[in-house]
Amino acid sequence: MQSLDSVDLKILKMLIEDGRVTLNKIGNEVGLSNSGVRRRIKNLEEEGILEGYTAVVDPEKIGYDIAAFLNIDVKSSEAGRVAGALKQSKGVCEVHKTTGNHGLIAKIRAEDRGSISEFVENRVSTYQGVKDVNITMTIETYKENLLDI
């Protein structure tokens, strides 16, 4: 993997803040031509640092008002399979293998508390290898970003 210099970091920061920022605006900020910026972005993409471009949607404004974290106690031999199933599930925002007592933690978004309970009871708890699921529901979200550098 390439070492990121201050120009790469500034380009990444600008793209994180606005994925539709123009090459011209980036170039003016970092002191490069449009082709220089394009080359830097292409290198970041080829290195897998920039994985894609997406719209950032406010989940609450489209009805996904509740966020919850699922601490999933899973047999270690089944963690990858359970994580794969979670990754394919609607409303699952993040899935992480963790240290400690649980094995997996997942962040989910849903329309209401009942939807989260139903998802856990009828789906997650039925996955082979899942021993227990503890739900932590959020009350209010103060910050929710993919990455802020």
From TrEMBL:
GO terms for molecular function: sequence-specific DNA binding. Keywords: DNA-binding, Transcription, Transcription regulation. Signal peptide: none annotated. Residues 4-65 form the HTH asnC-type domain. SMART domains: HTH_ASNC. InterPro entries: ArsR-like_HTH, AsnC-type_HTH_dom, Dimeric_a/b-barrel, Tscrpt_reg_AsnC-like, Tscrpt_reg_AsnC/Lrp_C, WH-like_DNA-bd_sf, WH_DNA-bd_sf. GO terms for cellular component: cytosol. One of its GO terms (biological process) is response to amino acid. This is HTH asnC-type domain-containing protein. The lineage of its organism: Archaea, Methanobacteriati, Methanobacteriota, candidate division MSBL1.
